[in-house]
Amino acid sequence: MxxxxxxxxxxxxxxxxxxxxxxxxxxxxxxxxxLIESGAQKVLINFAALEYISSAGLRVLLATAKKLKxxxxxxxxxxxxxxxxxxxxxSGFSSILTVSKDQxxxxxxx
Length: 110
Hints:
- The protein is of the alpha/beta class.
- The protein has a single domain, classed as 2-Layer Sandwich (Transcription Regulator spoIIAA).
- Helix content is 45%, strand content 31%.
- The protein has 5 helices and 6 strands; from the N terminus they run ββαββαβααβα.
- The radius of gyration is 12 Å and the shape is globular.
């Protein structure tokens, strides 16, 4: 798994590539928490290069959404491939989190 963080129009964009699973979710959670602790309020996670997400990865997203909401922030997700979209749909995360088709659409929704 690779994580790259950038900023676009006041939104912190996190690009996650590879697999977000039991082995990699602690690293992802640490990177996201560091961003939130540094004051990030608007966070977009771009999954364009994500190949697979497990329940451990979903837990990271849920914890992140709760932390941001508690501090007045917001989490959005974009660019899911068909496999990851199916996991989101089956788990109900498509209705829990705001999911956009691409980064441009997601940035405009903040």
